[in-house]
Amino acid sequence: MFPSGNLDSRENLEFTFVNDSLVCWTAFYMVHVFFAYLTAIVGILCMISRLHPRLYSAHHWLGKLYVIAMLWATASSLIIHNKGLPTGVIYSFLWVLLGLTFGWIAISLHTRRVFKSKPYNGPDRWRLIVSKMFSLKAFHGCAMFVSWINVAGLFYPVIKNRNLFIIFCRSYFCDSHHE
Length: 179
What we know:
Elements: E1 15-18, E2 21-25, H1 27-48, H2 56-77, H3 87-111, H4 125-133, H5 136-152, H6 155-160
Helix pairs in contact: 1-2, 1-5, 3-5
């Protein structure tokens, strides 16, 4: 699986080595695409699992799978980097990571009952609505949705662009020995 044969990345577009470091390897592009799709699909399943009480138990495990898929999609993207990222992708990536981080923290605080306030169950309907809307659990849902929507937005270019699965690594001539 590791690039073999001619390791001169100026002649082989399957990978790029720069200063004895692997910068790009086309085999990992499909790994990245797989985990990106898995992240988007598991994210929507996670939201659907909150719609019916029989599916609530699946939400916990789907959430863990969402985070793991996101980690692998991020890790595999590190080895397909070949020319930098557009500013829009960086901002989207920032929102994904912020939503993931704050959503995880919020639900962790909620499940460990860090803030030991009792839920409101009184007769005032508006106070009940406000107490549900401004809770750590609601914040978790909003933050994770922000994380997911930036990943799900990548489905459209896949449908529109048939050449999406074609990737070449750029060759850089950065070796100081060949000046």
